[in-house]
Task: structure prediction
Amino acid sequence: MARMKFLCDADRCIECNACVTACKNEHEVPWGINRRRVVTIADGKPGERSVSMACMHCTDAPCAAVCPVNCFYTTADGVVLHSKDLCIGCGYCFYACPFGAPQYPKVGNFGSRGKMDKCTYCAGGPEADGSKEEYEKYGANRLAEGKLPLCAEMCSTKSLLAGDGEIIAQIYKERVLKRGYGSGAWGWKTAYRETIES
Amino acid sequence: MSSFARFIRPAIGAWALLLLVMACPVPSPAQQINPTASSVNEQKLLQEMDRIQGRVSIPDQRSSVLMQPAGREWREFRNVALRWIGGVSVLGMLAVLVIFYLTRGMVRLESGRSGRTIVRFNTFERFVHWMTATCFIILAISGLNITFGRPLLLPLIGFDAFSEWSQWAKYAHNYLSFPFTIGVVLIFLMWIGGNIPNKVDLEWIKRGGGLFGHDHPPARRFNAGQKGIYWIVVIGGGLVAATGYLLMFPFYVTGIEGMQMAQIVHAIVAVLFIAAMLAHIYIGTIGMEGAFEAMGSGEVDVNWAREHHSLWLDQELARTGPNDSQPQPRHAASAAE
Result:
């Protein structure tokens, strides 16, 4: 089985935010919730870089480890998903997540935290693949249709890569070799405890 | 004049352009261009600060934090350290109380009951006590559920039932925090007068509070042990309330690191608080004869007051008149008035 990962080649990201828009549209993500965002570091200064970031679907995911009701599960593809039926909206996954991925709709609990929402790697949730319930709770299940996450698929500069970890790491390595530079796979050390040698 | 200027101006311009071109260094084609040499670097940023922050163009400015691996230490605290601290303090206190009960037994009223009572806590004081106590018990159970429910209760009742219960427990935890906090504030205000440590407490502590043997060190309205409980409630309650509200209203005051710290303080203070309250519940019920009445009916037996709060009893009797002899039944006394 593949081990699905995200890789953002910061030397290619032009901060067009198309990945953010595509994600919101594909899953009909409610207002105020962003499963993916583009962060620009050292904005306007020499050496600035933009990184598109969402849930990294970590190995030994911290969110799953700290969840009081154990609502997370990892699929055979290494995608970290959760059940909104079990989630109680306590916010613990948000304290543990290194990437700020969990999002909470402002309902219930004094409007601070409803049931958590995050990037599903376009892989839906525990409901039947492609079902109406699944779409309403988690959005489209592209993975079940044999497609990769839309954010990466439509990235205009192919900065954001999604797919099997070994394959996208290989693509990135070849890029670095050919162009002679690379600022590394952002977040990989934190999420997967590995770096891509370049 | 104008013809000379017309002649000299392009000449000066040409010379200036030549100088400019010569002054500029021409990049040698053999030199490899490496834009990342001067670009921001993940490892360097993480070493400089424990997180990487930038700018986002979406309205949610909190999402501008790209990475903060500090959650890993918090995870260790929550899943390992807290379970040890909580388990040892709560189970340890229970073990101490069981051993104490088995060896010492209930602290008896040595002079027996006089049949005459004295008001110890009025209706308002008892209302505040029980409001706070009820909230505390529910907050404690729902709080322990967040830390210990997953390994202990979840395997017994299954995912759906546990999630349903935890959802209600979370709501109870959040909403009951308000009456609890009000209770702590009222307790602070209404009993502060009797809870300032003084010399009597030193004597009381020196004599072990009379917990062992048949000693009865003198005490005013509150002995040193009760003063300890009072300050645990006021300081501990204040801390759990403050940190709890930081967690309940995320980002109003503090960001993620602040919330991690708040959760650590909240959880440690809470489990120690629970352990302390177990001791309080013990001595107020099965641990001491005649103690529960103080918070039950609000009136304690005069002999109980003499044994445990001699200075307070003297003070009360002096205040209500010279009536230090011949204890009479309460009803007879009130009928005579």
User: Anything to note?
Assistant: Chain B touches chain A through 59 residues (CB under 8 Å).
